[in-house]
Specification:
Elements: H1 11-18, H2 20-48, H3 57-85, H4 87-91, H5 94-114, H6 117-123, H7 130-152
Helix pairs in contact: 1-2, 1-3, 2-3, 2-7, 5-7
């Protein structure tokens, strides 16, 4: 993975490498962003699966989708910073590759769900269909798996 090594020589990567405090802050921001992402996704998926029925699904779905998107953007930005410190090492790490694969699968699941007529009907007030409930269950498993794979990175 020598072609990735120039990334570790960029100014942001060098700053992270040379400043343990900056690295710590970016790492903490990454963890917080993942918490925002997964917290919103889990809350929405559980609501779609029938929990917390006292919450109206339509506005909850719109709001939590936006919160999750914000968390995803921040997690990707901070994750890129962390990756830039040791790109070759991460790119060769099976846990990191599993995490990326699960994130890609999670994004495909989001697109598949959000592009269905069932999703559009749900955000207009309809009850979630079986397709949405299956998508929600898959989402919990996929994003939970991505978090587990992310934690696994440091153990390989």
């Amino acid at each position: 993975m020598d072609w990735l090594e120039p990334l570790s020589q960029t100014y942001p990567a060098r700053a992270l490498i040379l400043s343990p405090t900056l690295y710590l802050l970016v790492n903490a921001a990454h963890i917080m962003a993942i918490g925002v992402l997964f917290g919103a996704i889990l809350s929405l998926d559980l609501r779609i699966l029938g929990l917390a029925r006292m919450l109206p699904l339509a506005p909850t779905a719109v709001y939590l989708s936006r919160v999750a998107a914000t968390g995803l953007g921040l997690a990707m930005l901070t994750g890129l910073g962390l990756f830039s410190v040791r790109p070759g090492e991460y790119a060769a790490n099976p846990a990191f590759l599993a995490k990326l694969a699960l994130i890609a699968l999670g994004l495909i699941n989001i697109l598949a769900v959000h592009l269905t007529p069932a999703w559009r009907a749900t955000v207009r007030g309809a009850e979630p269909t079986k397709v949405l409930r299956v998508g929600a269950a898959m989402s919990i498993l996929i994003w939970g798996g991505a978090i587990i794979a992310g934690r696994w990175i440091g153990f390989i």
